[in-house]
Amino acid sequence: MASVEQAQAALNAVQDAGSGRSLIELGWIQQTRLVEDRAVFRLALPGFAQSQRDRIAAEAKAALLALEGINDVQIELDQPSGGAPIGAAGHGQGQERGQLPERQPIPGVRQVIAVSSGKGGVGKSTVAVNLACALAASGLKVGLLDADIYGPNAPTMLGVADRTPEVSGEGAQQVMKPIETCGIAMVSMGLLIQENQPVIWRGPMLNGIIRQFLYQVDWGERDVLIVDLPPGTGDAQLTIAQAVPMAGAIIVTTPQLVSLADARRGLAMFLQMGVDVLGVVENMSVFIPPDAPDKRYALFGSGGGSRLAEEAGVPLLAELPLEMPVREGGDAGRPVVLSHPESISARGFLALARQLSAAHLVPA
User: According to the model, what pLDDT value does residue 44 have?
Assistant: First the structure.
């Protein structure tokens, strides 16, 4: 007759199609037990994994029926409640019946700065990644949280898309160890899903995974955590603003009028939620051609960032050019701050880091 341990070992081979992780490790298969010749377990799939239920049930039954003395399998269907394993898209810690918890600091993290934009395509993630690297180069202990759940690009930009973070503990008590690269510690949804796998989640699931990245990651001692937010003014921005006290937010825009209109909305959102706006970063202010480095082309117009900053009464923190090494560094997994530190773009990021450090991030 098979034992419970043997049954759990058999079920350990059943995996989530998206992440490739064991369902027992994810906490989706629970309470495995044997009742005479029947194996019983609870299947607690998060909403986004319900489409896999029939396949999982069939594989689990086949694995258990192959064991000696097991002639029947009973599956109890349930949904995870309370917390959830990392990557399982729970509804977040301390959130029940729509109540929002008070803002809670992240253990070991002194300051949190969000990098946001009103629309996509303005180079927000490029700014976040290079700013994090520039701050680390100045001697600060830096973390980077890639909160752009639907479009997680930080692993590619930092050259770690093929790495998987270590996770310790079980179920809702799991703790993730961030990936150390380029002098910073980083977590991203891109580290937990397969290449080209879409993340199709509603707001509560998005809220849950962001809270896990905030509070179920062993960030250690960090002078600053840079949070790369997705474009817009949606659930991710609300979650971060409501969950954790922040030093403030940086608004990234291009000089283009369309970008400015959306950036104004994003800036207004943070002000309405009581989050300080540290300033505006105008990205792609000019294009510097590699074969004529003395020339400047205002591809997206000019002066937009300064107008937005003046309207809002906040500083214009930087005007960053568009150069080939910026794109090359992002694609190669070596940000321009590290790959071409003498470039005009890298010097702009380093100056931005010095400005923020002097005002907000002097280490203890």
Answer: 86
